[in-house]
Design goal:
By secondary structure, the protein is mostly helical. The protein folds into two domains: 11-91, no CATH class; 105-173, Winged helix-like DNA-binding domain superfamily/Winged helix DNA-binding domain (Arc Repressor Mutant, subunit A), CATH 1.10.10.10. It has helices at residues 13-35, 43-56, 66-89, 103-120, 124-134, 140-147, 151-169. The longest helix is centred in the middle third of the chain and has 24 residues, at 66-89. 17% of the residues are buried.
């Protein structure tokens, strides 16, 4: 199943990734079918989530390798889905204590949701640098290459992202 094509001229990130989406749609679908074998999640739903995340990235010109970025986002979405399934498996009700799940794990899950909410509020480049550094484990040099920025700028954006996260977390922004 391929995505419907809008005949109007796309804007923003959609314009930059339109060709990539068309070129790799079937390949991505096959990748998702293999990865989601035996899972409840449908490849179509996951694919839509991937495209939505790509569209959230405001400036497609910053991505030098759109196919690599598409698959990086796909892996992130699959990872997030896996974490969600794991969270659903471990319910935090009154039986939690008898199963050995303590308050620390409940707090950790709440903190994770808070962090995701804070990161979503960051400007696009700050968020991209932060996610690539922390979630993907990329070095500053790799991030600079991926986003076509200088290493100095990547470090600056990382610092500013962390400062903004603290301010948002404290309710000061």
């Amino acid at each position: 199943m391929s995505l419907p094509v809008n005949k109007k001229k796309p804007r923003g990130a959609a314009q930059g990734f339109e060709e990539t989406v068309r070129a790799y749609d079937r390949e991505l679908h096959g990748f998702l079918l293999r990865r989601l074998q035996g899972q409840e999640e449908s490849p179509e739903d996951v694919r839509q989530e991937i495209y939505l995340r790509i569209l959230r990235f405001a400036d497609a010109d910053l991505v030098r390798e759109p196919r690599a970025y598409l698959y990086r986002v796909a892996r992130n979405v699959l990872h997030d889905k896996m974490l969600l399934v794991q969270r659903k498996r471990s319910t935090f009700d009154e039986d939690a204590e008898s199963e050995g799940i303590g308050e620390d794990e409940v707090t950790r899950a709440d903190n994770q949701r808070d962090i995701e909410h804070i990161v979503d509020q960051l400007p696009t480049l700050y968020r991209a640098v932060l996610v690539l550094r922390i979630r993907e484990g990329m070095s500053y040099g790799e991030i600079a290459e991926e986003l076509t920025l200088s290493v100095h700028t990547v470090k600056k954006y990382m610092h500013l992202a962390l400062v903004q996260c603290r301010l948002i977390g404290l309710g000061l922004k």
